[in-house]
Here is the input.
Amino acid sequence: MISLYLPERTWLHAVPAGWKLLALALISLVAAPLNSLPVMAGLLLAALVLYASLGKAALKQIALLRPLWPLFLILLAFHWWNGDITAGLVVLARILAMVLLANAVTMTTRMDAMMDAVEPLLAPLRLFGGSPRAVALAVAMMIRFVPLLFALWEALNDSWRARTGKRGGWRLLAPFCIQTLRLSHHTAEALAARGGAPRGDRR
Amino acid sequence: MKDRSLVQIALYAAIFAVLGLLPRFDLPFAAGVPITAQSMGAMLAGVMLGAWRGALAMVLLLFVVALGAPLLAGGRGGLGVFFTPSVGFIFGWIAVAFVAGWIMQALRKAPVFPAALIAAVTGGIVVMYAFGIAGMALVGGLSVLDAAKACLIFIPGDAIKAVLVALIAQTVARGLPEALLSRNA
Here is the structure.
């Protein structure tokens, strides 16, 4: 599956996932109430320095922010309209810095390492009769479902095109839902045949 | 939790992801305005699964996105999306699915199309924009009124999606009645 993860190892890869998440949470808590432009610009600069220290591949990932530009322009326009362009720049710098920092954590942490890091947070589920292992199973099933559902959509689209010569588009949604439900019945049966979803602790 | 519920939650989380990754639909009755189908996923999860399972499907989706999977429209994902001004909409999806599912269950006796339409409009527009505007105001540093103005351009697209969800629910109810889990709970 495509991923935001950077395959080449950097120094940030070596930092345990838990520490990175903790640092991100702390920075976001500290940055949220601050409204000084120099401080926010400094934070943004620090985020950019972090990317530079991670290498060329990381710098390329800054392009992921491109879809946000229209929204940023709208935000700036509103702040300018209200006569406080500085406030708009503070907000913009804070959003950019936090998104960059958060993406840096995602870029340098494997999904399974992230899962292990947040697993202790799932422990309270046991009080409600849930299980952290059931969560891990649901995550795995969902990720596995995505390519299956794609293939299913393509098959429906092909047969629609064979009949009409056009793309199916939204008309495929209802048959798609029905077919996926069949798929989920089979999966549930297969799961039950293997002893069902886990109930106890992990491993 | 029963195996079947767990699978259905995973399924609708995956459907949500697939809706965002599909090429954009051109809706004939929207004068060819392209819209991403993704926010339909939240309404669909609620209307199809009911309140609790629908909401849990959205929780699962957000969890996997936070773990680092680029499953949101346009291949967005990872922790970064939770720091953008759209974060209100993103967390709103949980409430959207819950409210849509709850209305669907409450209107169990009503015909499918109007029930699903009420559920999708209330969840997918009223609830979603309440969350979306709050998020835009908080993260973007705007007043609630300005935030509302910045969000309103998306409402026509979501109204179309709500109608589509109701049409889908009706078709599914005809083709495979037991698939509409919100009704036989």
In short: The radius of gyration of chain B is 16 Å. The beta strands of chain B are 25-26, 34-35. Residues 112-140 of chain B form the longest helix (29 residues). Chain B touches chain A through 61 residues (CB under 8 Å).
